[in-house]
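--- STAGE predict ---
source: upstream dedup step, 1 unique chain passed
mode: sequence only
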Amino acid sequence: MNKIFLGCIADDFTGATDLANNLVRAGMRVVQAMGVPSEPLDAEADAVVVALKSRTVPAADAVQESLAALRWLQGQGAQQIYFKYCSTFDSTAQGNIGPVTEALMDALAGQPGGDFSIATPAFPDNGRTVFKGHLFVGDVLLNESGMQNHPLTPMTDANLVRVLQAQCHRKVGLIDYKVLAQGPEAIRARIDQLRADGVGLAVVDAVSNDDLMRLGPALRGLPLVTAGSGVAIGLPANFGIAPSNTASALPPPTGFQAVVSGSCSLATNRQVAAFVQAGLPALAIDPMQLAASGGGAATVAQALAWAKGLLPKGPVLIYSSATPDAVKAVQARLGVQAAGDLVEHTLAAIARGLLDLGVRQLVVAGGETSGACVQALGISQMKIGPQIDPGVPWCHAQSDAAPDGGLHLTLKSGNFGTDDFFIKSFRCLQ
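--- STAGE serialize ---
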């Protein structure tokens, strides 16, 4: 049986590919599984990322799913567990980051070092930095970045020690930038000090990739690491792995090109605008009209009829991205969960229909939308390929909707990517 070094649990599908991308860039062969597999791993890999759709489900459900993923990864011989969450620490006072972290720690408590873990969403390549325990998005604090308007997990406090402590029973501490600057030995000494003070979890500062590379060796042998995807760049070397181009090789692309976007983030709204301004064909799905119609079947049929004649000419975009005010209006009409489900299921059905029309290069924007689309396409595993932008790689997957050799797929977190992401992604694949 293939023994994997790193067993990863991600709380959404785009976050899983974000993590897998960084591991591949650091030289690891990575397989991403959609949900907890029912069978042993049947491919050679150094790391496996189990992608869950657990970020915004009830905390008890997120815990149950994460523990199931842990048991499967332990069955594959995973030497270290990595719980991956969003680089904007998407959560509420009820979780799910804290409850899942503590459940995993409880399950690993019998291992040496199992009484302690770290937490940092820092990913400097994408403008996510932590300084004195406060999370910055670009040059502004988290609660001034637009994330305070997130429809499901509004982030109104940038102090991660305070945010995490509200979700945890264990005492939460801090490993600050001064310690990081001194290197792995100083970090390990700080961990020992925190343990002696009764701290079970510590938020870690990181303002550059150098900080993350110094953090990596200090985490060798720790049973559980919790973080965004940034910490991943410093872990493969702990297992004797170095960067290699062969880790990201994928089959050559075929078929038509399309983008499906359900994210309402500021970054994705800019990417939609850039696609439209470039004169490329784009179709907006109006959430209010969708809600008024009581269902998405007619919308799906209309979208596919619109796309059919355009696909041979180049990429098309179908999107439901909207302003915060528009999102709130739909939520007020249907409720938060029902509004999200309606849009996601409609876009997932459109993605399935696009494959029936011959699309074999598909970009999906938004974590919840990506989860719905992957499920609708019947994708169970993906091989991780080359990076488009930090945190966003191309992947290759098998699907019964693409029986002629599978498809190339990108799952983009809403906040990631440059303004021209939708346009350049297909050039990168060529």
